[in-house]
Amino acid sequence: MRRQRPTLIAVSTLIAVTLTTAPTPANAAPPDQVTALTAHQADGYTTLAWQPVDGATDYQIERTPVDADNTPTGAPTIVGIWRPNRQINQHAPTFADAGYNPGDTFQWRVRARTGTTEQPYSDPVTATTTAPWGNPTTPGEQLRTGWETTHAAQYTTDTDEYAYTAAIDALSDRVRVVELGRTVQNRPINMMVIGHPTPAATPEAVAATAPVAINCNVHGNEPGDREACLIMARQLAFSTDPRITDLLSHTTVLIVPTINGDGRANNTRGNSTGQDLNRDYSLIRQPETTAYITMVRDYRPVAGYDGHEFGNSRAGDLPMLPPRHQNVAQPIFDQSQDMIEGHMYAKGAEAGWWACPYGCEGGGNVGLSEETILRNTLGLKNVTNSLLELRSSGGQTRPDEGNTTNNRRRKTYSALWTFHQFLDYHRADRADILKARSEAIETQAANTGRLVFRGSRPIPAHPAPHPGDSPPPLDAPPADLILDNPPCAYKLTDAQYNGARTDGPGGVGTTVAQRIAAHGWKVITIGDDHYIPLNQPERGLIPLLLDGKGVEKLTDGERVYPTLTGRRNGPLAVTGFTCADDATINGPVTVRAGAALVTTATTISGPLTAAGAAGILLADSTINGPVRIATTDTISIIDATIAGPVDLSGNTTGTDAPVLAGTTIRGPLNCTGNNPTPHNLGIANTVHGPRTTQCAAL
Ligand SMILES: [Zn+2]
């Protein structure tokens, strides 16, 4: 950079010389005047774009209300300041002006400043802004939220929300409203399930569409995203725009407008017990977080956004952040960063919205590694996702937002833009998102590498001059929160597993068993002992709740290490809980009734047979021979290679379906009489022989 600077000075000197010596056309713009100003209208905002002025320090955006004759009806107001840290491409400045009544007509002008010196204004552009979405005379489209009806003077109330979403459900085949649960004060926690032409009928069928989930309002006093969600739901339900129908034909959109209905009704951050729900998604002590996590288990979203507002007036329009906890699989971190820095920063620069890393500028100690935060919880569940913050006050760069309704409009319409971009990203990058998820699940199930109880991956500052002056702090794990040698499983006593807890609201708590079931982890019960193996998709999250080193844990489980390693010749009869890691077993393996086998990085040469076993969990392993598993309680086979044939028969596994995912079978696959039916977590298996009955679609 230092070598380039003299060249730039030389060029600008040359330009100056040229300008002073050449004859100036009579109608040419002064050299420091903004030219080529354009105004592009979108939902709730206007993208202003112009030619940059050499040497400009920043730009001021002026807006004047005008009538149909272009006569001003109010005073011109500086509504925006464009600064060089707004966007990644400096050669094409843009500014998303929002914070006005949609549908009104305005005149805009933009001028550069060099230092504190104001340069001449551009020629004005005049345009009528886009009215709230939906034809007022078309059924369905005509619906409006309480927030829209009151022109942002009031947020949509709980009862307005129920009526509005019920009306959308009634009028649109694309939308089904389901109740995920109830808040502490018994408010329904609704989710809109949206697909085209209709949403898939069951959670399992929705999961097969690689759905996306938006959590709109966890902090009750941060309502801007919720209003965006409600508006977007109407657009998705009724729009005939081919983009929308294409999106909904390729996935299912899951929108939870208000997980914290009690907090929203009372305008408090926490729920009615004062609990910050965004510090509870791993522990799930509260009914609200339990509802969301159970939804994630059943609907299996592959990507997510979590909406917030942030009280830092300098921090960009749209601070975002990926899951950073170091137990999140690298592909999920990378894919989330690609969504944020690869997509949102680029599209933000086109639309004029200032996306940046949470923290952004003067951000402080934010965006850390607590697994209790949905951003990290979802990452640990192999979901590509981001936090979204709406800068809550206008600050220096949006000086008109002392006006409360204008401030609210800017926040909501910037969230609406983000959520639409999120859907476009999923549509365009679906294959990459699914690949990242598959790789993450297989990496997690392999149970290799250290475990970190708290600690984040670094978020490097984006290259200047784009945002990221102050990305979130490093947050590296301290040595005492690192476990280099991961156990095979955690063993809980019956008292730990089934004992009544008192950490829920009013001292009423669900058991560890119920919370583990809500997370969807597989458990092997032998007598009074309950084993939670780590060769599972959520391997990074399990120790945070069950290890003594967990910072916010549920219980202090006993670490169980592998007992079977290295080479072993001859037949093997497995009794009790047996864990094999990095083992080579030459000979047939029989898992006795009531016993369990858990393997990672293990090769078994010979048939593997289990009948009436407590559990079989195979990951990153090879079976050179047939596999027959019958009447067994817990079954998971992930990223295995099996010579085959494979037969799963008569397994009754309660509510927890057998998993067969990412596995290559060089022979036939037969599944009969299993209840529930086995599934593949969305990771297809490669089967060289015929697949029959229950496994026909695996
Ligand atoms: Zn928040």
UniProtKB/TrEMBL annotation:
Domain of life per record: Bacteria
Keywords of the record: Carbohydrate metabolism, Glycosidase, Hydrolase, Metalloprotease, Polysaccharide degradation, Protease, Signal, Zinc
Matches recorded under SMART domains: Zn_pept
Chain ranges of the Fibronectin type-III domain: 30-132
Region (Disordered): 117-141, 390-409, 456-475
The keyword Protease is annotated on this UniProt entry: yes
PROSITE patterns per the UniProt record, alphabetical: FN3, PEPTIDASE_M14
Keyword Methyltransferase: no
Signal sequence extent: 1-28
Database matches in Gene3D superfamilies: Immunoglobulins, Zn peptidases
Compositional bias (Polar residues): 117-140
Co-factor(s): Zn(2+)
Biased composition (Pro residues): 460-475
Family as reported in the entry's similarity comment: Belongs to the peptidase M14 family.
Protein name per the record: Endo-1,4-beta-xylanase
Originating organism: Micromonospora noduli
Source taxonomy: Bacteria, Bacillati, Actinomycetota, Actinomycetes, Micromonosporales
